[in-house]
Amino acid sequence: MYSKAELKQLKVDFWEGFSAYCQQQNVFKHRRGKFILYDTKLKGVELKFEVSRNHVGVMIEFNGSQEFRSERYRQFCSYRYLFDEVFADNELEWCAHFQRESGENVARILLQRKGLDVHRREHWMDFYHFMANNMQRMESVFVQIREWLE
Q1: Using one digit for the tens of pLDDT, what is the confidence trace for 83-116?
Q2: Which is nearest to 110 in space by CA: 71, 25, 27, 52?
Q3: Strands, E, within 14-78: which ranges?
Q4: I need a surface site. Which of 20, 42, 107, 146 has the fewest CB within 10 A?
């Protein structure tokens, strides 16, 4: 078990390592920022990473009121064929109703890989590779859709 301070340092080390990994990748060298994440320019839509003791995920998440979430989610579902093309080798999870551990309800489009543990440093390169490659693909589809929804 880790102490609170050790867990905090582990998280800092993980995210600093991810930043260093991205800086080494040619695809990110000419980008101003690494990823869009919260700066989507679409209200109620965020791109996120999720790391835990048993999986890693990249997602587009829809928040706000139930009606707003449902409408945004429906809009993205109409472009599902684009996601299917880009993620032909992976199966995305389309969740119209998902409750976070905090109790907040959201909708999301998720790609995850199970069996990785963020507490095991030997798994970090697998985390980094999965996160960078799949968020880049998720962003490419998102940017196309955003252009049509603006």
Answers
A1: 999 999 889 999 999 999 899 999 999 999 999 9
A2: 52
A3: 45-51, 55-62
A4: 20
